[in-house]
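[job 0417] fold request received: LPS-assembly protein LptD central domain-containing protein
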Amino acid sequence: MLDVAQAQQRPAAPQPRPAGQAAPPLAARPDTARTGADSLRVGVKPKGDIETTVKYQAKDSIRFNVQEKRAVLYNKASVNYGTMDLKAGVITVDYSQNLLTAEGRADTTGKVRDKPVFKDGAETYQAGRIAYNFKSRKGKIAEAITQQGEGYIHAEVVKKNELNEIYGLHGRYTTCNLEHPHFFINASKMKVIPRKQVVTGPFNLVIGDIPTPLGFLFGYFPTPGKSRASGLIIPTFGQALDRGFYLTNGGYYFVVNEHIGLRVTGSVYSGNADSFGGWGVNTDLTYRKRYSYDGRLEFSYSRRPAGLILGSSDLSANANLRRNFKPRTFWLSWSHAPTPRPGGGRFSASVRTGSPEFNQQNTIDVRNYLTPAFNSSISYSKQLRNLPINYSLQATQDLNTITRTVNLTLPDVTLAVQRQNIYQLLGMPTRGKFYEQFSVDYQFTGQNRLTNTEAARTLASGLPLLGGNTATRTVPIELSNLGPLLRNYQTSLQHRFGLSLGNYTLLRHLSFAPSASYGESWFLKRLNYRYVPDAQAIRVDTARGLFRVGNFSAGAALSTNLYGTVNFGKTKRIQAIRHRLAPSVSYTYSPDYLSNPNYYEQPYNDGLLPFDLRNTAGALFTASQFSRYQGFAGTGPGGGPVSQVSFSLQNQVEMKVRNDKDTTGTQPTKKVSLIDGFDLSSGYNFIAQSFKLAPLNASLRTQVAQKLSVLVSGTFSFYQRDSSGTLIDKYLFDQPNPRLARLDQASAQLSYQFDSNRRPGQPSSRPQRTAPVNDPVLGNPNQPDSYVDYLDFSIPWTLNASLGALYSDPGPRLARTGVTRNRSWPTVAMNVSGEIKLTDKMRLSYTSGYDFVSRKVTLTSINFFRDLHCWQITGSWIPTGQIQGFNVTIGAKSALLQDLKLNRNRTFLNR
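[job 0417] inference complete; emitting structure tokens
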């Protein structure tokens, strides 16, 4: 016997070794005179049972017994043979029997360390003792622990055959990765086929070392490893007031291929003694192609008798529920997102549509339940390579679940040519002239819109209508109404040409930019108006054809920037304050379109009207022009002539302060914004017949301590009002009590965001004022500071709060006339949301609000999550409102055991 640790200190000597074993690292050096391999040994197979090289090493020593053909490796030993790798405290290699045995090594305290870890290909085993035959590839493992997919297998004794199948005695199957798991499925016999399945005999569930009666005669657990696998989805049992007893979300998951997965589930409801409860189906298709796209398509259908909605008593008491209930509902969701690629087209989709009643009858999701409108779009866009042209094809839909209005735009085509310099476009040489900056751009938009809503036709004069609906009418989307829905289409083709005349500098500081644009819309319909004297009403007819509407406008803008700075000195905390003032003046001109009979029509004049024909206000009707394209999609004709000068004034205030946190001197100062923006704008139309001065719009944007965002805006009017609140063409400074302007509308939005996560240098705890009197240590008067670390009050939490208010001038005082005044503050509401991390394993999130006008708490939702290592508890509570209730679920975290859970809930469906 030879100690390798000692042999390394003297010259190497030839050592006998077992047949087939590779030469140890201390073998003699090869003959350098031989330059090639011996051709006689090429293709010769190794003799004996060992097929490849056995590599071994140990931290302490390796002892050989030549007579018995045995090697013992001590301390951090490892043996590698092909795909097999074994590490342990002590490993014995018996070449006579082709047997490897491994076990741990006890330290001076008696604790076993370096327990065997055995790897065979992709499989890994941890054990108390291992015996493995590297010829037959069979093994016996005591106290084995191995991972199969998401699960872990513990067994007293494990046998492994040449097919890599595992047979376990007194096995435990769990998804907990601890040596002593929190829960497991206990079975006397177990068979494991790696990366396929685990099959057991009779088993029962053990939680916290407490056996439970939950079990079955056999167990089957798929272990697909990293690859996906098809399988059954176990349904959930429950009871609901509007469905009776039910089995829901049971079905099958199909792995179509490596890119597509399909989940099909169904639900069935018992109903009551009078009628069948109904059924539902849900299909969820997910697909993904790496570096190309990924998406998800989901379709749900629900069918229930009308007599089961929330019980017959609720139906009789709530007519709104009875009217809105629909026995057959569906919902479709589709999202498709491509991977951006240069030069390629981009196809994307975001679809959320279906029956307006679906989310109110079949979901408890707060966002879907409260969302009044859903928008859907499918689009394809592309930028042509080496050309300044891009185009897009789009289909959009708007669904309002309250009014049940559906607007579908199909198709929506856009073709745009980016701004092009005229000289460069024509290939003409430039000479530095001002007109060489002229550039043009073009955009074409074609839309066809279908809607199930026919808007009410109203006339400014107040005359009654003949033909057409006088009130808004919604056409139900049914197959029988296909004709009226198609006749309600609106098509428009729009062309817009823009001409930029360059940007010039005047008087060194003024920027001057003239421009002009022309747009033309083509319609396939228009309205014709005709006054009927016998009926004393206006008749409206729809004419079909191709009709052109042109709009021209031109203008110029003059702007500059002014700066003012106040310096306080570099030694001060506040070193300087800078004010940026950006005034601008623009002029806009467009011709008069009211006098064009192709755009507007005047069906009568004052002489044709009878003298006693008066409107609801008691005033005589006057001649008026009516638009031939009222309510049509696209851009209709302009109004009266415009020759308007607009004014705008932008303000920004910044402060330069000393940076006390800078210790390197690289950034001694920093900028702090005091006012992000204070903007004013108005205008004056010189050729308008009345109300030439436009209202004054003002807005203020700022942030306080980088936490509180403030946005305030308002609209001021310069004209007087009569006793009924109608504007009259007289300025406010012309009245007996003159003033410049009146606040008509105002809005304020305040939002606050706070994150209490500790910053570098912040203490981990705060001292409390007084110590508990019943604590013998912390209450010691001789140690007044001993309670500093008793409690940690620096619990991370986030808070998002917003306050919104809307003000509207109520108008003249009408209290004595019996007319109710308008509300000055129609909207004042506050919303809060955030999260509290109570511990490292538990967090609480919340959403709530308060409406100060109605004096009611808005929708409140409290959600919590508790991590229990291999288990988790999730819950939500909605204390008030129509969907109040709670939902608590405790279950295994692993997707493999997703049906191992306990759920308790009370919602509006079963409360």
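[job 0417] notes: Helices lie at 4-7, 311-317, 319-324, 358-362, 366-370, 422-426, 482-487. The chain has a mean pLDDT of 78.
[job 0417] exit 0
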